């Protein structure tokens, strides 16, 4: 059985949601970032980590790609044009959503106070808003890649949720309604319930 290492209110949630969507049981170790427990799985103390037998994998996107390929779910097959398009969307989301939110977090509470540049957050919020408008235009089906849910859907919704908690501008009504539908999925709620269990 897999073990997901990482607090629910972190990128570990992406992995948990994916496993819930795939109907795969897993154990959850809610270790916080840089905690002694997290450092058992990643010397840097970064979360999430996935324990699969004797293997320990790190980085949420690497873990999700591994799980999708291993189980043949929530991903287009490797080596296909559909997978290349999916990967392009994933990398765009990492660059234009996740990285922007992470930069804002670093300048809010992650970096030592004397290294933070609070003024940068306004520019990051504006950049995120531009990217959210692009994503809204790209959303033409029930899911980002068309008729089937894939890894980019989980990444995008997680980032939208993160942006709300970080006080970023709200996404437009179309993207907001789509994200709400995704949050209403039973698998999302099951992963979220781990927070209180």
Q: How much helix, percentage-wise, in residues? A: 55-70%
In percent, how much strand structure appears in the residues?
5-15%
Distance between the termini: 19 Å
Query: Main beta sheet: strand number and arrangement?
Result: 4 strands, mixed
CATH C-level label of the largest domain: Mainly Alpha
- The string of secondary-structure elements, in order, is EHEHEEHHHHHH
Descriptive overview:
The chain is 56% helix and 8% strand. By secondary structure, it is an alpha+beta fold. It has two domains: 73 residues, Glutaredoxin (3-Layer(aba) Sandwich); 106 residues, Glutathione S-transferase Yfyf (Class Pi), Chain A, domain 2. A four-stranded mixed beta sheet has the order 2-1-3-4, covered by helices on one side. A hairpin with a 2-residue loop joins β3 and β4. α1 packs across α6, α4 runs antiparallel to α5 and α4 runs parallel beside α6. The longest helix is centred in the middle third of the chain and has 30 residues. The radius of gyration is 17 Å and the shape is globular. It starts with a strand and ends with a helix. The mean pLDDT is 95.
């Amino acid at each position: 059985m897999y073990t997901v290492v990482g607090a629910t209110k972190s990128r570990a949630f992406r992995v948990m949601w994916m496993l819930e969507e795939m109907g795969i049981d897993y154990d959850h170790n809610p270790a916080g970032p840089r905690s002694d427990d997290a450092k058992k799985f990643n010397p840097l103390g970064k979360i999430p980590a996935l324990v699969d037998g004797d293997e320990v994998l790190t980085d949420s996107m690497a873990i999700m790609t591994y799980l999708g390929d291993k189980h043949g779910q929530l991903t287009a097959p490797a080596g296909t044009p559909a997978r290349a398009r999916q990967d392009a969307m994933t990398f765009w989301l990492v660059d234009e959503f996740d990285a922007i939110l992470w930069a804002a977090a670093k300048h809010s509470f992650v970096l030592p106070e004397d290294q933070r540049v609070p003024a940068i957050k306004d520019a990051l919020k504006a950049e995120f808003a531009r990217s959210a408008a692009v994503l809204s235009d790209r959303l033409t089906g029930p899911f980002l890649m068309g008729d089937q849910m894939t890894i980019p859907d989980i990444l995008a919704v997680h980032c939208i949720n993160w942006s709300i908690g970080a006080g970023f501008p709200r996404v437009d009504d179309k993207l907001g309604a789509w994200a709400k539908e995704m949050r209403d999925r039973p698998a999302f709620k099951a992963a979220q319930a781990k927070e209180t269990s």
